[in-house]
Amino acid sequence: MRSIAVLLALSSLVWLPTAWAGETATPGPSPAGGSGLAAKYPGDVGIEKDPAVIFAEGFEEEQIPTVGLEKTGGFFDLQGSPDEMYITSTEAAVGRHSLELLHPKGVISPQWLHRKFPGQDTVYVRFYRKFAQDWVWPPLGMHDTILFAGRYQSPASTDLSLYLDISGINQKFSAKEAIRDTVLTKQPVLVFKASFQGPGLDFGIGREIISHVGWDNYYILPFNGKPAPVLEGGRWYCFEYMGKMNSAPDTKDGEARLWVDGVLITEMKGLTLRDAGHMGIKWDRWMLGPRYGGKGYKEGPPEDQKSWIDGIVAATQYIGPIQPGAAAPAAAAPAAKP
To answer: How much is the pLDDT for 26?
Structure first.
């Protein structure tokens, strides 16, 4: 199979999304100031060779690169491929192809895939997402991608999970900390959840963190940078989020951040993301797993609809939006599903 480097070098084409009104898309500031890794690799060409990059995927090969269960170097546990998840040339944020997802009517979780990598204390993940122009947003939100650390039993049962909720739910809590209501905002938010750690975690939200297997301990992080955009169908968005582990049980130096189109939306510092009994856990798994939160979380979308993902890069430092490398690609004829 041809490598990403060769294919990107041949095409070296890039599409750059527009920021929402009043904001700038590129370059995005890194936590230490300045621009990110993408600034060194116009069009993302060659970015996979940077020492800070854990993996990069632009879906420029004919098939999704796969490996055995729980192996590194490719994707595994593919659900919905090839009928509902396949490489296409109809849409692309970089290069000529992207991964197209078909969300069938009434189906909550039609597809997912996992990527394992050597454990890291700090991980950044950047990717581009687009939803169809007539996309119907789920009334109870939709988690889209997840970064995991430590023990993994299921997406909702891990030592630590950092979710990107792509359509934004603001949860309201009762006195007993149970979710009693939700409000759809159509704004992307970060969400922490821990299932197998003990007490003492601190997600920076001023509330006691419960660590158990259940549905009452998803913790949404606030917008404390620029206001998050209200997402729309029909355009590409650049999402990047990061998690940094605390260095010691009694040292509150964990971090989490979210950027949209290079604009810093959420920045949380002084966190405790692993307790004394879990200081060995590291970020080591990423998942694409859209879950459509229909009525009562039991219904999928009202009609078939599509979304796309492209330009995925995971690294140990800030990446930033794709930088201009060449003219935007011309519209391509639809590719047949494999």
So the answer is: 40
Backbone torsion region of residue 153, taken as left when φ is above 0, otherwise alpha when ψ lies between -120 and 50, otherwise beta: alpha
Closest CA to 165 of 70, 79, 260: 260
Torsion of CA 133, 186, 35, 94, to 10 degrees: -20
What integer pLDDT is reported at residue 77 of this predicted model?
Answer: 94
Q: What is the pLDDT of residue 268?
A: 96
pLDDT above 50 for 128: yes
**Distance, CA of 248 to CA of 20 (rounded, Å):** 39
Could you tell me if residue 324 is inside a domain?
Answer: no
In-domain check, residue 334: no
- Total structural domains in the chain? 1
Amino acid at site 26: T
| Structural domain includes residue 58 | yes
- The one-letter amino acid code at 83 reads D
Q: The domain spanning residue 160 has which CATH number? A: 2.60.120.200
Q: Map tokens 């301990």 to a residue.
A: 217
Q: What is the mean pLDDT of the chain?
A: 83
Residues spanned by the domain of 258: 4-315
Q: How many CB atoms lie within 10 A of CB 171?
A: 17
The answer to the question of residue 321 being in a domain is: no
In angstroms, the first-to-last Cα distance of the chain is: 16
Check: CB of residue 88 under 8 Å from CB of residue 42. no
For residue 188, the SS3 value is coil
Whether residue 182 has pLDDT greater than 70: no
What the block records as the tokens of 231 is 């997402």
Model confidence pLDDT, tens digit, residues 145-163: 999 999 999 988 999 999 9
- Report in angstroms the alpha-carbon separations of 270 from 177, 189, 225, 252, 304: 23, 19, 16, 4, 43
Higher pLDDT, 121 or 1: 121
* Confidence check: pLDDT of 322 > 90: yes
Strands (E), 121-231: 122-131, 142-154, 157-165, 169-173, 179-184, 189-193, 219-220
